[in-house]
Amino acid sequence: MSRDHRWSIRKNVGMDVTLHSTQTHSVRGRLINASLEGMLIQPDQSCFAKDTDLEVSFTMPGKNESHHRVRAHVVHNGIHGIGLMLKHMCHTDIHAMQQLVRP
After folding, report:
1. What is the CATH number of the domain that holds 94?
2. Which of 4, 8, 35, 71 is the 20 to 30 A CA-CA neighbour of 95?
3. 75 in a domain, yes or no?
4. Is the pLDDT of residue 72 over 80?
């Protein structure tokens, strides 16, 4: 089984995010789809190789706007964007991801 297999359903999102890595400066991107386990992001610059650890920051819109920064691992990098596997999320980030992918 591929390391980037996601068990839960992916939801199209279309949200601006920022990618942070120790190897490069922050890069803006667009969250294409998300699930509870991962994300597909189109970065403004293609600078994240497979197996890179990074953080994704985003703001959940709405009445109770909240900012989140989740850890992730690049599992693939292609013409459609970078595939991320989410890692070690705290309960508030898990709740944000649940809201993000809610139908």
Report:
1. 2.40.10.220
2. 4
3. yes
4. yes
> What's the pTM?
0.84
The pLDDT, as a whole number, for residue 25 is 80
Asked if the structure places residue 97 within a domain, the reply is yes
Domain region containing 40: 11-101
- Tell me the C-alpha distance between 22 and 80, whole Å: 23
Which residue in the block uniquely carries the two structure tokens 């900012």? 67
The predicted pLDDT at position 46 comes to 76
Residues 6+ apart with CB under 8 A from 27: 18, 19, 21, 43, 44, 45, 47, 48
pLDDT in tens, 38-57: 999 999 877 788 999 999 99
Residue 17 CB burial class (10 angstroms; 0-12, 13-18, ≥19): buried
